[in-house]
Write a sequence for this structure.
């Protein structure tokens, strides 16, 4: 009976090791979440919300929706889908890194319920209500983490200046979007654009840069310039690296200002330059060998897509709405699933797979690339545009389902390494 239970949820990537004896019962899923690993709950939820947000396009094209779904799509993809991965990742990693009390089951459950609620509100067209829930949820969560930060026994990596800046973008962007939706505030359309940029891009881009500098060299077997010895006092060299991170973050923020003011080329060009400069110096992927498995391959493509998307927007600003999907699809979303794969495999005793060839990760990479190309080129074909949005969304969803079936079941598996 117990062995039958242990089989539930097995994949090719979690076979064998979970053999259960009557003497050693494996911990339950909830006890794993309660042990300070909110990613186990929030990554599957984020995956589900991503599928909902993207499948609005086929639902619209094949006739299931009345209203043009751009706002629910954008909000669910950023606040619901990517938001789940961001809070799940930070809630797992930060307390361990700083050696402070972990995030328990009640906080994880509240986060999951809030993310589900806000996505439901966006789906129902209640944009302001959805935004308010996101604001309260993110604000409350950051307050909780800040409270623990005071009791830290170690200093976070210097790139985390960018994580803090990214969280501030998520809060400020959402607040601006709420205020500009209320006519009585009389705010200019530029404030709405700035709100969109802060939420849709800053909230993800800056943490990706900041966490990336610490995490990504491990994918490529490169020396880690953000790994300092444990210390409460700032270690030598920390301030210099944090200063560079802060300067690149400030340039990204400035680029949002230029774009909101109508200086599109300058805005996109500055953003591409800041991202390239930061990655080139802090995550020198160009120096890495090419033989480090499927995760490193997917990551290389994701890291390349982000500056490529911004550079393409600088060359052809009129196609911004299409070209930004190079950043969203093969940039943010591929990077999110790649980092999530590593977190899940690493926390389930399967770190030997980090450098292997993983067919589901390769399938995800190919299908997301096809989705990106279909989405971007759709806007050049007015007659086929809407059907191509649907095909792009279906390709994205297919890639994500393949990944989810192979990798996600391991969230139920404890780290037995
Ligand atoms: C792969 C299938 C996808 C399709 C067919 C699709 C389609 C679209 C369309 C048609 C728009 C409106 C563009 C405009 O108004 O100019 C849009 C906007 C947006 N999409 Fe997607 N999208 C896809 C994937 C994604 C993904 C994976 C993300 C996030 C990770 C994303 C995030 C957004 C955001 C944030 C906006 C609003 C951009 C803004 O207003 O500045 N999309 N999408």
């Amino acid at each position: 009976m117990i062995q039958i239970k242990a089989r539930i949820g097995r994949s090719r990537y979690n076979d064998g090791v979970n053999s259960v004896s009557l003497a050693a019962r494996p911990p339950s899923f909830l006890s794993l979440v309660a042990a300070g690993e909110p990613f186990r709950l929030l990554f599957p939820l984020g995956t589900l919300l991503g599928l909902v947000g993207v499948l609005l396009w086929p639902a619209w094209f094949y006739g299931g929706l009345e209203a043009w779904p751009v706002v629910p799509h954008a909000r669910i993809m950023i606040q619901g889908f990517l938001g789940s991965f961001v809070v799940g990742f930070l809630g797992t990693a930060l307390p361990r890194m700083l050696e402070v009390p972990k995030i328990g089951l009640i906080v994880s459950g509240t986060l999951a319920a809030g993310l589900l609620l806000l996505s439901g509100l966006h789906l129902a067209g209640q944009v302001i209500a959805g935004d308010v829930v996101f604001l309260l949820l993110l604000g409350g969560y950051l307050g909780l983490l800040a409270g623990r930060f005071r009791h830290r026994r170690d200093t976070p990596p210097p790139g985390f200046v960018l994580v803090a800046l990214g969280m501030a973008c998520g809060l400020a962007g959402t607040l601006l979007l709420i205020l500009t939706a209320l006519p009585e505030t009389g705010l200019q359309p530029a404030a709405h654009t700035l709100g969109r940029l802060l939420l849709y891009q800053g909230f993800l881009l800056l943490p990706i840069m900041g966490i990336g500098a610490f995490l990504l060299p491990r994918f490529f077997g490169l020396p880690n310039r953000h790994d300092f010895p444990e210390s409460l006092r700032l270690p030598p060299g920390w301030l210099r690296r944090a200063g560079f991170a802060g300067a690149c973050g400030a340039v990204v923020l400035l680029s949002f200002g230029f774009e909101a003011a109508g200086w599109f080329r300058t805005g996109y060009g500055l953003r591409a330059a800041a991202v390239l400069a930061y990655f080139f110096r802090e995550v020198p992927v160009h120096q890495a060998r090419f033989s480090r498995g499927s995760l490193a391959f997917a990551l290389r493509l994701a890291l390349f897509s982000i500056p490529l998307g911004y550079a393409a927007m600088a060359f052809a600003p009129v196609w911004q709405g299409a070209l930004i999907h190079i950043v969203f699809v093969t940039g943010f979303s591929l990077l999110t699933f790649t980092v999530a794969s590593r977190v899940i495999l690493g926390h389930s005793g399967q770190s030997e797979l980090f450098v292997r060839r993983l067919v589901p990760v390769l399938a995800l990479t190919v299908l997301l690339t096809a989705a990106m190309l279909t989405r971007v080129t759709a806007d050049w074909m007015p007659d086929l545009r809407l059907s191509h949005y649907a095909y792009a969304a279906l390709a994205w969803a297919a890639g994500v389902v393949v990944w989810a079936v192979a990798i996600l079941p391991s969230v139920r598996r404890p780290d037995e390494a």
